[in-house]
Amino acid sequence: MAHIGPYELMTCGIIPPAGGGLGVTEDRKKVMIVAKLTAKQQRFCDEYLVDLDGTKAAIRAGYSEKTAAAIASENLRKPYIREYIDQRMAEKEETLVAKQDEVMKYLTSVLRGESISAEIVVEGLGGGLSRARMMEKEPSEKDRLKAAEMLGKAYGMFTDSVNLTGAAKVVIVDDLDG
Prior knowledge:
mainly alpha, disordered N terminus, single chain
């Protein structure tokens, strides 16, 4: 597999040339990082993301078992490899972890009864036999109430304490002497 450099990527229009007030976009930066990696280094990075074990990743990427630990250590110290791994981890995290707006949309769909969940129902057939089947169901009143409560808390609709601000005159009377 041939190594494709930034010049080749620019001449075929994959990344725009620098200058002209364009600045470096995230996509351009990512393409530039990938362009620095050899095919084996990119494979190493992708394998490293599987289990975060550099030696195993190096072996799976095609490096020799004898030198895998040293190559892994060397690769992980290279700034452009580290940056590529960090970007890929951030992408993974973004797809795996729900954002605030996603949670709010889900709670709203439960509150409105728009979400559907699947449940397994076991039915008796008689003679000691039963079968399980999948059944779709809308949120119960309890589920909808819980979603409303969680949304209300998120929006600060329910407060248990009262905050008072302002100036007040405080007078201390010493009447312990008699």
